[in-house]
Amino acid sequence: RNILILNGPNLNLLGQRQPEIYGHETLADVESRCAALAAELGLVTQFRQSNHEGQLVDWIQDARGAASGIIINPAAYSHSSVAILDALNAYDGPVIEVHISNIHRRESFRHHSFVSARADGVIAGCGTEGYLLALRRLGSVLGQ
Ligand code: DQA
What is the pLDDT of residues 54-75, one digit of tens each? Predict the structure, then answer.
């Protein structure tokens, strides 16, 4: 079973970017931890990051019929992107939204996520461990 893990803008700077909020781990570290857990769970992950909304939309469209589930940290696009919401609404499998920080404890403009209207589950404030929790959830939802 194939899981697509998508990361939105500025997450390429994870580890360097506001480490007091997002921690010191890099996105490459998160990718390898996800791959290791996925192997244990009998899943295969494809891990991607883009700073471009349209690229994320294209990848979500490509997941139709190709990925068993999606984990997405839409980053700042969570709070603005109807296009990403629409793309996810055209995808049939389970979707888990992840935020490294607790968006509800931060500025009010981060409290609303368009993606949450589609997500089957939302994980926020668990640090990068949120990606691993999301993988475990998809593993159980998909019957692994
Ligand atoms: C984030 C939270 C967003 O508000 C922010 O724009 C991000 C990262 C998180 O993982 O905590 O870039 O999605």
Answer: 999 999 999 999 999 999 999 9
Q: Which residues contact 117 (CB under 8 A, 6 or more apart)?
A: 85
This model of the complex carries an ipTM of 0.99
Domain assignments of the chain as residue spans, ordered by start:
2-141
- Tell me the pTM: 0.97
State which of 100, 112, 114, 116 you would mutate to test the pocket of ligand 1, scoring each by most atoms of that ligand within 8 A of its C-beta: 100
C-alpha 93/C-alpha 1 separation (Å) is 12
Binding residues for substrate, as ranges, are 73, 79, 86, 100-101, 110
Please tell me the class of the 2-141 domain: alpha beta
